[in-house]
Design brief:
By secondary structure, this protein is of the alpha/beta class. It is built from five helices and six strands, in the order E-H-E-H-E-H-E-H-E-E-H. The protein has one domain: Phosphoglycerate mutase-like (Rossmann fold, 3-Layer(aba) Sandwich).
Length: 165
């Protein structure tokens, strides 16, 4: 299975006077535009997910919805999961991922959790990535008796994804 992890786009600053609670922070207009361009970059790479998972936080859901629109994935089929929330245990998402009947999956979440998920899937004790906002990483996962074994296929900075578009 190919797992593509995408960090949410640029959200309203936590220090802004109009900032809501963390789960309700939305994408800025600039953030939305950069997410659209990053999604168009994945489209150029012929990414065609069979499943989309997202953290239920507003900024991650908005990012997932924008990617779904560009990649022509049905918005109503996006699966919200607490296993992609900040502080979630990587193994919990990978266990949920096993329920997806898809060869290619996109998942949207937060830093540093996505970087910890990459490290765990690769068998590293420490993060080996640092995803930028709207950046993406692709892992090839192979099932194992104890846990999936992953191989890093590619890592794109947000700027590189936008240039691909």
């Amino acid at each position: 299975m190919r797992l593509i992890l995408v960090r949410h786009g640029i959200a309203v600053d936590q220090d802004a006077s109009n900032c809501p609670t963390d789960p309700e922070r939305w994408l800025t207009e600039d953030g939305k535009e950069k997410v659209r361009q990053a999604a168009a970059g994945l489209l150029r790479l012929e990414v065609r997910p069979g499943a989309l998972f997202t953290s239920p936080y507003a900024r991650a859901m908005e990012t997932a919805e924008l990617f779904a629109r560009i990649l022509e994935f049905p918005r109503e089929q996006i699966r919200r999961t607490d296993t992609l929330l900040p502080g979630a245990v990587p193994a919990s998402f990978l266990a949920e991922l096993a329920t997806a009947d898809a060869d290619e999956v996109l998942a949207f979440g937060h830093a540093p959790n996505l970087d910890l998920l990459v490290a765990w899937a690769l068998g590293s004790r420490r993060p080996v990535t640092e995803l930028g906002k709207a950046g993406a990483v692709c892992l090839e996962l192979s099932p194992d008796d104890r846990r999936p074994r992953g191989m890093l296929r590619w890592l794109f900075t947000p700027a590189l994804l936008r240039r691909l578009a």
